[in-house]
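Exercise 7. Given the encoded structure of a 140-residue chain, write a plausible sequence.
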């Protein structure tokens, strides 16, 4: 019986974020890219600086009112994102669950789209989503 209880507890702790309700977006929250600017011609590695207004940064797993953390979409169409569940981590959807506000990316030459998406303590986008305007850059 103890094994069954332990397995149930393990399942609930793993699955709970998938069943969590979306956190309301902080009123007037806005994310944006400080750097690079739209249309920039850059060389790799590219420094990307995140901006935030109307909310605070808290690491993943830390539930505080009106906070969240950044996720960077690289060449991702937001229409393909499931806003109801935790965001999957990948090379194109990068998590900054430690509360980071900038990063350096090694990007291949060519045109790239960058966009920020604010997520709650469970990596779930707020309701409504707090999404920056996309920035298009050209890597030389």
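Solution.
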């Amino acid at each position: 019986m103890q094994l069954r209880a332990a397995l149930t507890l393990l399942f609930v702790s793993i699955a709970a974020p998938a069943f969590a309700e979306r956190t309301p977006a902080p009123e007037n929250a806005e994310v944006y890219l400080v750097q690079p600017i739209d249309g920039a011609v850059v060389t790799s590695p590219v420094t990307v600086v995140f901006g935030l207004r109307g909310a605070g940064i808290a690491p993943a797993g830390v539930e505080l009112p009106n906070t969240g953390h950044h996720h960077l979409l690289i060449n991702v169409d937001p229409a393909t994102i499931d806003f109801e569940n935790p965001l999957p981590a990948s090379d194109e959807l990068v998590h900054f669950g430690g509360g980071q506000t900038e990063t350096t990316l090694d990007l291949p030459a060519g045109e790239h789209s960058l966009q920020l998406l604010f997520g709650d303590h469970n990596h779930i986008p707020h309701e409504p989503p707090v999404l920056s305007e996309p920035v298009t850059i050209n890597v030389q």
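Remark. The chain is about 15% helix and 40% strand. Students should compare their own answers with the one above.
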